[in-house]
Specification:
By secondary structure, this protein is α/β, with parallel strands linked by helices. The chain contains 11 helices and 15 strands. The chain has helices at 15-23, 60-67, 84-104, 139-153, 172-181, 199-211, 230-242, 254-260, 265-274, 284-287, 297-313, and strands spanning 4-8, 30-35, 50-54, 72-75, 109-113, 124-127, 157-160, 163-165, 187-188, 193-194, 196-198, 218-221, 228-229, 252-253, 278-280. Helix 5 packs across helix 7.
Length: 315
Amino acid sequence: MGPRILITGATGFIGGRVAAAAATAREPGHVRLLVRGPLTGPAAATGPRTGTAVGDLRDPASLRRACEGVDVLIHCASAIGGDAEPARAVNDEGTRSLVDAAVRAGVTRIVALSTASVHGRGPFRAAAPGTLPLAPGSVTSSTRAAGERHVMDAGGTVLRPHLVYGTGDRLLFPGLVRLLAALPGPLDGGSSLHSLIDVDSLAGALLGAALSPATEPGPYYVDHPEPVPVGDLLAAAESLLTRTGLRRGRAVDLATARGLLAGLPFAGHHLDMLATDHWFADDRPWRELGCDPGPGFTAGFADHAPWYHGLLDHS
């Protein structure tokens, strides 16, 4: 019999994929999903080895109940964007309460999903683990950095992807399409390089880190080994936009785009990210933990393009 696994964030973009992967893992075990309400998304299709525990990261008593009898914790829940108070309550204090409950329950492995944005804005070029300071630039990333510390203080493992794409993504590519739609033509983003991973490979890495005997405490970067040129990233987003029939003019460089979009608060963040290298190099998940990095970006995006088309067609 395999380990008993508790997964948080199972109704989310990434956590739902982790729950689905855990329910069909080759090594049978029991999967418990921490939920606040009915299951949706990929997690709703889990099988007979999956149960639920009703709880909330802001309710320590519910976390203690959820952790009872659990061997492994995979923590994917987070509050992204919005006000500071919910982010602090979920990402920082909620993670602390969850880790405390897991330790008291005798959980033997804790793996948490975080983000490379805990390092702030680049340039980061082939940045190796342990070489970058924490320098979060937003409420979300600063509270997630605080949550990381609770996990690692308990001997747990943290996975830090940079950009995550795929079926269910309502942030990365929808945001890029929104940015491009505000410009008269395609964006010439320069020559920066970016780390990306598709959601299914990331889910596999989270599950692999939770189950592999080779997993070490501390942080891992988890991205496809090959960085993606910004031009390829923008071309993929442009293909989604032009499919809607929007007519496009001549390409716009970054400096011109900044001037044209100066009145849009969200645009500055996107342009700053696109203009700067964000390439994180860490082959340990693929070399030591037996995980599969998945296809490169071109093939990976093509696999998920129909879902993005459907999302944009109904937006």
